[in-house]
Amino acid sequence: MATNSSRSWIKPAVIGALVIALAGVGYATFTRSTPAPDVTFIDLKGQKVSTQSLRGKVVMVNFWATSCVTCVKEMPQMVETYNKYKGQGLEFVAVAMQYDPANYVINFTETRKLPFTVALDSGGDIAKSFGDVSLTPTTFVIDKNGKIIKRYVGEPKFADLHKLLEKELAG
Fold first, then answer.
1. How far apart are CA 104 and CA 66, in angstroms?
2. Confidence of residue 7 (pLDDT cuts 50, 70, 90)
3. What is the DSSP code (8-state) at residue 89?
4. What pLDDT was estimated at residue 8?
5. What would the mean pLDDT of 13-28 be, rounded to a whole number?
6. 158-170 helix and 69-85 helix, angle to the nearest 10 degrees
7. Is the torsion defined by CA of 114, 147, 52, 130 positive or negative?
8. Which of 98, 99, 152, 168 has its CA 20 to 30 A from that of 132?
9. Taking residues 52-74, what's their average pLDDT?
């Protein structure tokens, strides 16, 4: 007969398995079947770019801040990624967080010659639309049909990101 102590691992194991399964289902549901929100980005020159106008292209939306060490560290690789794939139809929008002063964002963009669209999220509405983004960097990859296919919190593994982009751009 099994004693109570010999079965003490069962309940935590079952709960752990359920949490992992639910997290996986929630993540898969969010990333594969969620349409990108219908938002309009306003770039540093005041030009508007909507997610609707980007349909038919693979899009990366990167939430970042000039005060975010990881964001600053990953930005050269984001530039390289954009430059590598822009000729194949990749669009890239770097969205500066609500708390990031506009003059810091402009200075960062100009001194580093960022080649893609840089937008300000002055009211925080864009971050809210993408699921209340609060951690930076957070990057979304959106397919040609306007569906979110991947969400990275933190710096992505660029080799994996490039494989994903190549697959989506070819499809």
1. 7
2. low
3. T
4. 53
5. 41
6. 30
7. negative
8. 168
9. 98
How does strand 48-50 pair with strand 117-120?
Answer: unpaired
Q: Could you tell me which residues are beta bridge partners of residue 142?
A: 59, 148
- Sequence-distant (≥ 6) Cβ neighbours of residue 106 within 8 angstroms: 44
pLDDT value of residue 10:
47
Six-digit token pair at 168?
Answer: 């989506």
Residues 96 and 73: their CA atoms lie apart, in Å, by: 15
> Which residues, in sequence order, are bridge partners of residue 94?
62, 118
3-state helix, strand, coil split of the chain in percent (to 5) is 45, 20, 30
Single out the residue of 45, 39, 41, 40 nearest to residue 109, CA to CA. 45
Q: Which residues of 47-61 are buried (b: 16+ CB within 10 A; e: fewer)?
A: eebebeebeebbbbb
- Residue 6 and residue 157: Cα distance in Å, rounded? 41
pLDDT at 32: 56
Tell me the β-bridge partners of 96: 64, 120
What confidence score (pLDDT) does residue 171 get? Answer: 86
